[in-house]
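Subject: mismatched residue count in predicted assembly?

I count 314 residues in my input, but I want to confirm that the predicted structure covers every chain. Input:
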Amino acid sequence: MKFIPLPLSYFSQLKNPNDFHNYVDGLALVDDLLCAYDREPRTPMYLPEENNGRAAGDLELINERISECLGALRSPDLHNNLAENFNCAKALHSDAANSPNEIQLFLAALLYHYADVIHPAIYPASQG
Amino acid sequence: MKTYYSTTTFLTLSINRHLYEGKHYVYVAEGFYPYGKRNPKSSNPLLIYMDLYQPWKNRDKHDKFVLQHRLAVRKGILAKEKDGMVPGRIAQDLRRVADRIRLEFFYPVVYRIKFDVSAAGGRGGVTVAGSGRKGSSEFLIHDLDESEYELLFNDNYTHHFDKLRELPGYFASKVDAVNALLAWSS
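Triage response: the counts match. Full output below for your records.
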């Protein structure tokens, strides 16, 4: 159950700012779902005020927001990649007790993908 | 009444003050170094301070902790957009800030908060959260007001921060505030 990187040939579709932000927001939410099980456990952060008693890290809470991100993505390739990764994340989340190593590898690949692959491709200029 | 601490970055402090109407969403721990309280690294203000300070000092923009903080800022934006705290256009600009703002803004700052968590007469809006559910001393405050905390280690006097050092209400509008952040997010 590994994180599925976005093939290089799909990167041009990230040039659409709306698609880029919805795709990366989706990755951030996937990270939020699993971050409590990371090698150095982190605290989930996505918690809208109107959450009907649900806590940050709640699967359904994140599911609702990711569905909105998926619905807003115009590129079918970005849509499919995010949907596949979310399905992987849900499977890991449901079996978190038995999947600590897989979760850590999944999150490490997600962060690498965001930071070292997507981010420089979209924002090529260096920052100080 | 006990004393709690929370470490964040000047970036998050600025967004809370100027874009989220001075309401701070903070995870707090009892003690700056809650040694022996079963707090994991993510709810240990001293260790978070070190994880932020070192890449800031080394100017390491590829540091894992900094990159995770960028994603965490995005999660906050998602929540605040959902709540109606920030309109879509400003949320979109804030996403660019989360991705692109200079490393200087990841300088760590610390909130010091005193409150009582007892059911009777305690501060409302405080919930046991995160590792607190497993026995550590971690709490979540959704709406910490400007008057409820003391800011520690806010001692980076870089010109980048400029007007963002001011208290909530300084900027005439959220557009002005986000523009002040965008100026360092090219």
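Helices of chain B lie at 10-18, 45-58, 64-83, 88-100, 174-182. Marking this ticket as 'not a bug'.
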